[in-house]
Amino acid sequence: FDGQFKDSAAPVVDIHEMEPRSFALALDYMYDGKCAAPDVIALQQMLSVASILQMDALLVDVVTVLENGITVDNCTSMLACADHHHLPQLKNKAEAVAHEAFVAVASNPAVSASIMLALLHSDHLNVNSEQEVFETLVTWIKGQAQPLGEEEQMEMFGLVRFALLSKDFVDLTVMAEPACLTPRACKLLLAQFKDAFFGDAKPQQRGAKDKSNVLSAKAYHQVLSWLDTVAAKKLELLYCSSKNGWGASDLHSRCDNKGPTVTVIKCTDG
To answer: Taking the CB of residue 118, how many other CB atoms lie within 10 A of it?
Structure first.
Protein backbone atom coordinates (compact mmCIF):
# COMPACT_ATOMS: atom_id res chain seq x y z
CA PHE A 1 0.00 0.00 0.00
CA ASP A 2 3.00 2.31 0.12
CA GLY A 3 3.78 1.86 -3.57
CA GLN A 4 2.43 3.43 -6.73
CA PHE A 5 -0.33 0.88 -7.22
CA LYS A 6 -3.89 2.00 -7.85
CA ASP A 7 -5.10 0.31 -4.65
CA SER A 8 -2.75 2.41 -2.49
CA ALA A 9 -5.00 5.47 -2.95
CA ALA A 10 -8.36 3.66 -2.95
CA PRO A 11 -10.67 4.20 0.05
CA VAL A 12 -11.75 0.53 -0.09
CA VAL A 13 -9.61 -2.40 -1.22
CA ASP A 14 -11.17 -5.75 -2.13
CA ILE A 15 -9.00 -8.75 -1.25
CA HIS A 16 -10.22 -11.83 -3.08
CA GLU A 17 -9.62 -15.53 -2.40
CA MET A 18 -9.21 -14.99 1.32
CA GLU A 19 -11.39 -16.39 4.10
CA PRO A 20 -12.58 -13.62 6.48
CA ARG A 21 -11.73 -15.81 9.49
CA SER A 22 -8.18 -16.33 8.22
CA PHE A 23 -7.75 -12.60 7.55
CA ALA A 24 -8.90 -11.84 11.10
CA LEU A 25 -6.31 -14.28 12.46
CA ALA A 26 -3.64 -12.62 10.32
CA LEU A 27 -4.60 -9.23 11.80
CA ASP A 28 -4.22 -10.69 15.29
CA TYR A 29 -0.74 -11.86 14.31
CA MET A 30 0.17 -8.42 12.92
CA TYR A 31 -0.71 -6.69 16.18
CA ASP A 32 0.14 -9.32 18.78
CA GLY A 33 2.71 -11.56 17.09
CA LYS A 34 0.46 -14.55 17.69
CA CYS A 35 -2.99 -15.86 16.83
CA ALA A 36 -5.20 -18.78 17.85
CA ALA A 37 -6.12 -20.90 14.83
CA PRO A 38 -8.89 -23.31 15.90
CA ASP A 39 -7.92 -26.26 13.71
CA VAL A 40 -5.66 -27.61 10.97
CA ILE A 41 -7.99 -26.37 8.21
CA ALA A 42 -7.70 -22.82 9.52
CA LEU A 43 -3.91 -23.15 9.63
CA GLN A 44 -3.82 -24.36 6.05
CA GLN A 45 -6.01 -21.46 4.93
CA MET A 46 -3.62 -19.07 6.66
CA LEU A 47 -0.82 -20.21 4.34
CA SER A 48 -2.66 -18.51 1.48
CA VAL A 49 -3.22 -15.38 3.57
CA ALA A 50 0.45 -15.22 4.55
CA SER A 51 1.47 -15.57 0.89
CA ILE A 52 -0.97 -12.95 -0.40
CA LEU A 53 -0.04 -10.45 2.33
CA GLN A 54 3.67 -11.36 2.07
CA MET A 55 3.89 -12.07 5.79
CA ASP A 56 7.01 -14.24 5.82
CA ALA A 57 7.15 -14.58 9.61
CA LEU A 58 3.55 -15.80 9.73
CA LEU A 59 4.26 -18.26 6.92
CA VAL A 60 7.23 -19.74 8.80
CA ASP A 61 5.26 -20.03 12.04
CA VAL A 62 2.25 -21.67 10.37
CA VAL A 63 4.44 -24.20 8.54
CA THR A 64 6.22 -25.06 11.81
CA VAL A 65 2.91 -25.68 13.59
CA LEU A 66 1.65 -27.80 10.69
CA GLU A 67 4.83 -29.89 10.63
CA ASN A 68 4.55 -30.58 14.35
CA GLY A 69 0.86 -31.47 14.07
CA ILE A 70 0.97 -34.17 11.38
CA THR A 71 -1.02 -37.26 12.34
CA VAL A 72 -2.32 -40.36 10.59
CA ASP A 73 -5.76 -38.75 10.40
CA ASN A 74 -4.63 -35.48 8.78
CA CYS A 75 -1.53 -36.43 6.78
CA THR A 76 -3.61 -36.75 3.58
CA SER A 77 -4.65 -33.11 3.78
CA MET A 78 -1.11 -32.17 4.83
CA LEU A 79 0.29 -33.82 1.68
CA ALA A 80 -2.20 -31.97 -0.50
CA CYS A 81 -1.42 -28.72 1.31
CA ALA A 82 2.33 -29.24 0.88
CA ASP A 83 1.90 -29.85 -2.85
CA HIS A 84 -0.37 -26.83 -3.30
CA HIS A 85 1.94 -24.43 -1.47
CA HIS A 86 5.24 -26.01 -2.58
CA LEU A 87 6.47 -26.91 0.91
CA PRO A 88 8.96 -29.78 0.45
CA GLN A 89 9.82 -30.26 4.13
CA LEU A 90 6.16 -30.48 5.15
CA LYS A 91 5.66 -32.98 2.32
CA ASN A 92 8.61 -35.12 3.46
CA LYS A 93 7.30 -35.29 7.01
CA ALA A 94 3.74 -36.07 5.94
CA GLU A 95 5.05 -38.77 3.59
CA ALA A 96 6.98 -40.34 6.48
CA VAL A 97 3.75 -40.69 8.44
CA ALA A 98 1.91 -42.01 5.37
CA HIS A 99 4.63 -44.60 4.76
CA GLU A 100 4.55 -45.73 8.39
CA ALA A 101 0.74 -45.99 8.49
CA PHE A 102 0.16 -46.86 4.82
CA VAL A 103 -2.88 -49.10 5.26
CA ALA A 104 -4.75 -46.61 7.47
CA VAL A 105 -3.83 -43.60 5.33
CA ALA A 106 -4.21 -45.03 1.82
CA SER A 107 -7.53 -46.73 2.56
CA ASN A 108 -9.05 -43.26 2.85
CA PRO A 109 -10.94 -42.39 -0.38
CA ALA A 110 -9.95 -38.73 0.17
CA VAL A 111 -6.37 -39.57 -0.81
CA SER A 112 -5.78 -38.11 -4.27
CA ALA A 113 -4.72 -40.26 -7.20
CA SER A 114 -1.36 -38.48 -7.42
CA ILE A 115 -0.63 -39.15 -3.73
CA MET A 116 -1.68 -42.80 -4.09
CA LEU A 117 0.67 -43.21 -7.05
CA ALA A 118 3.54 -41.67 -5.09
CA LEU A 119 2.91 -44.06 -2.19
CA LEU A 120 2.73 -47.10 -4.48
CA HIS A 121 6.09 -46.13 -5.99
CA SER A 122 7.75 -46.22 -2.57
CA ASP A 123 9.98 -49.02 -1.28
CA HIS A 124 9.47 -47.86 2.29
CA LEU A 125 5.84 -48.67 3.08
CA ASN A 126 5.35 -50.18 6.52
CA VAL A 127 3.39 -53.29 5.50
CA ASN A 128 3.58 -56.91 6.56
CA SER A 129 3.42 -58.11 2.97
CA GLU A 130 2.58 -57.03 -0.56
CA GLN A 131 -0.85 -58.50 0.06
CA GLU A 132 -1.66 -55.46 2.22
CA VAL A 133 -0.63 -53.15 -0.62
CA PHE A 134 -2.99 -54.89 -3.06
CA GLU A 135 -5.90 -54.97 -0.60
CA THR A 136 -5.42 -51.30 0.34
CA LEU A 137 -5.35 -50.25 -3.30
CA VAL A 138 -8.54 -52.19 -4.04
CA THR A 139 -10.25 -50.57 -1.02
CA TRP A 140 -9.18 -47.12 -2.21
CA ILE A 141 -10.35 -47.73 -5.80
CA LYS A 142 -13.75 -49.00 -4.66
CA GLY A 143 -14.15 -45.96 -2.40
CA GLN A 144 -13.79 -43.39 -5.18
CA ALA A 145 -16.93 -41.36 -5.87
CA GLN A 146 -15.95 -41.16 -9.54
CA PRO A 147 -14.88 -44.60 -10.82
CA LEU A 148 -11.36 -44.70 -12.24
CA GLY A 149 -10.90 -45.49 -15.91
CA GLU A 150 -9.06 -48.63 -17.00
CA GLU A 151 -5.93 -46.62 -17.85
CA GLU A 152 -5.68 -45.17 -14.34
CA GLN A 153 -6.40 -48.50 -12.68
CA MET A 154 -3.73 -50.29 -14.72
CA GLU A 155 -1.19 -47.59 -13.88
CA MET A 156 -1.80 -48.22 -10.19
CA PHE A 157 -2.02 -52.01 -10.36
CA GLY A 158 1.23 -51.91 -12.33
CA LEU A 159 2.96 -50.68 -9.16
CA VAL A 160 1.80 -53.66 -7.09
CA ARG A 161 4.59 -56.25 -6.85
CA PHE A 162 2.52 -59.27 -7.81
CA ALA A 163 5.51 -61.60 -7.86
CA LEU A 164 5.74 -61.18 -4.07
CA LEU A 165 2.20 -62.50 -3.58
CA SER A 166 1.51 -66.12 -2.77
CA LYS A 167 -0.04 -68.35 -5.41
CA ASP A 168 -3.12 -68.89 -3.25
CA PHE A 169 -3.64 -65.15 -2.80
CA VAL A 170 -3.32 -64.55 -6.54
CA ASP A 171 -5.74 -67.38 -7.35
CA LEU A 172 -8.33 -66.61 -4.68
CA THR A 173 -8.15 -62.82 -4.27
CA VAL A 174 -6.39 -61.13 -7.18
CA MET A 175 -8.18 -63.14 -9.84
CA ALA A 176 -11.50 -62.52 -8.09
CA GLU A 177 -11.20 -58.78 -8.76
CA PRO A 178 -12.97 -57.84 -12.03
CA ALA A 179 -10.31 -55.20 -12.78
CA CYS A 180 -7.66 -57.94 -12.78
CA LEU A 181 -9.46 -60.11 -15.32
CA THR A 182 -9.21 -57.78 -18.31
CA PRO A 183 -6.78 -58.66 -21.12
CA ARG A 184 -4.55 -55.71 -20.14
CA ALA A 185 -4.46 -56.81 -16.51
CA CYS A 186 -3.59 -60.39 -17.42
CA LYS A 187 -0.81 -59.12 -19.67
CA LEU A 188 0.49 -56.98 -16.80
CA LEU A 189 0.51 -59.94 -14.41
CA LEU A 190 2.27 -62.15 -16.93
CA ALA A 191 4.96 -59.52 -17.57
CA GLN A 192 5.66 -59.12 -13.84
CA PHE A 193 5.93 -62.85 -13.21
CA LYS A 194 8.15 -63.25 -16.26
CA ASP A 195 10.52 -60.51 -15.03
CA ALA A 196 10.55 -61.99 -11.53
CA PHE A 197 11.39 -65.54 -12.54
CA PHE A 198 13.49 -65.01 -15.66
CA GLY A 199 14.79 -61.42 -15.40
CA ASP A 200 17.81 -60.05 -13.56
CA ALA A 201 15.93 -57.77 -11.15
CA LYS A 202 13.82 -59.34 -8.43
CA PRO A 203 11.07 -57.28 -6.76
CA GLN A 204 12.09 -55.83 -3.40
CA GLN A 205 10.08 -56.38 -0.25
CA ARG A 206 8.72 -53.03 0.86
CA GLY A 207 9.93 -51.58 4.11
CA ALA A 208 12.63 -54.18 4.59
CA LYS A 209 15.41 -51.67 3.95
CA ASP A 210 14.29 -49.02 6.44
CA LYS A 211 12.29 -50.99 8.99
CA SER A 212 13.32 -50.13 12.54
CA ASN A 213 12.28 -51.89 15.73
CA VAL A 214 12.97 -48.74 17.77
CA LEU A 215 11.46 -45.82 15.87
CA SER A 216 7.69 -45.40 15.90
CA ALA A 217 5.98 -43.25 13.25
CA LYS A 218 6.01 -40.30 15.68
CA ALA A 219 9.69 -40.79 16.54
CA TYR A 220 10.66 -41.15 12.88
CA HIS A 221 8.77 -37.94 12.16
CA GLN A 222 10.76 -36.23 14.93
CA VAL A 223 14.07 -37.40 13.43
CA LEU A 224 13.03 -36.03 10.03
CA SER A 225 12.25 -32.66 11.62
CA TRP A 226 15.91 -32.38 12.68
CA LEU A 227 17.18 -32.88 9.13
CA ASP A 228 17.12 -30.65 6.08
CA THR A 229 15.05 -31.66 3.06
CA VAL A 230 17.92 -33.27 1.12
CA ALA A 231 19.12 -35.32 4.11
CA ALA A 232 15.59 -36.45 4.96
CA LYS A 233 15.14 -37.90 1.47
CA LYS A 234 18.40 -39.88 1.76
CA LEU A 235 17.70 -41.29 5.22
CA GLU A 236 18.01 -45.08 5.25
CA LEU A 237 18.56 -47.79 7.83
CA LEU A 238 22.22 -48.90 7.93
CA TYR A 239 22.28 -50.97 11.09
CA CYS A 240 19.77 -52.63 13.41
CA SER A 241 21.18 -54.61 16.35
CA SER A 242 18.38 -57.18 16.36
CA LYS A 243 19.04 -57.95 12.69
CA ASN A 244 22.77 -57.27 12.22
CA GLY A 245 24.29 -58.27 15.58
CA TRP A 246 24.99 -56.64 18.93
CA GLY A 247 28.78 -56.33 18.73
CA ALA A 248 30.70 -53.10 18.22
CA SER A 249 32.27 -54.59 15.10
CA ASP A 250 28.79 -55.24 13.67
CA LEU A 251 27.91 -51.56 14.10
CA HIS A 252 31.19 -50.25 12.65
CA SER A 253 31.20 -52.65 9.70
CA ARG A 254 27.89 -51.22 8.48
CA CYS A 255 28.16 -47.57 9.52
CA ASP A 256 31.81 -46.52 9.16
CA ASN A 257 32.71 -44.27 6.21
CA LYS A 258 29.04 -43.63 5.37
CA GLY A 259 29.14 -39.90 6.01
CA PRO A 260 26.91 -38.19 8.61
CA THR A 261 24.67 -40.66 10.45
CA VAL A 262 21.91 -40.56 13.07
CA THR A 263 22.13 -43.10 15.89
CA VAL A 264 18.98 -44.05 17.81
CA ILE A 265 19.33 -46.03 21.07
CA LYS A 266 16.42 -47.40 23.11
CA CYS A 267 17.17 -47.55 26.84
CA THR A 268 15.57 -50.10 29.13
CA ASP A 269 15.73 -47.85 32.21
CA GLY A 270 14.24 -44.73 30.65
So the answer is: 17
φ, ψ of residue 110 in degrees (nearest 5): -75, -15
Give the residue from 9, 27, 31 showing the smallest Cα distance to 19.
27
In order, the DSSP letters of the chain are --SS-GGGG-SS----S--HHHHHHHHHHHHHS-----SHHHHHHHHHHHHHTT-HHHHHHHHHHHHHT--TTTHHHHHHHHHHHT-HHHHHHHHHHHHHTHHHHHT-TTS-HHHHHHHHH-S----SSHHHHHHHHHHHHHT-SSPPPHHHHHHHHTTS-GGGS-HHHHHHTGGGSGGGSSHHHHHHHHHHHHHHHHSSPPPPPTTTTT--SS--HHHHHHHHHTS-HHHHHH------HHHH-SSHHHHHHHHTTSSS-------S--
Residues lower than pLDDT 50 in the chain: 208
Q: Nearest CA to 157 among 120, 107, 118, 102?
A: 120
For the chain, the distance separating the N- and C-terminal CA atoms, rounded to the nearest angstrom, is 56
* Per-residue model confidence as pLDDT tens digits over 148-167: 998 899 999 999 998 888 88
Q: What is the CA radius of gyration of the chain?
A: 23
- The pTM for the full model equals 0.70
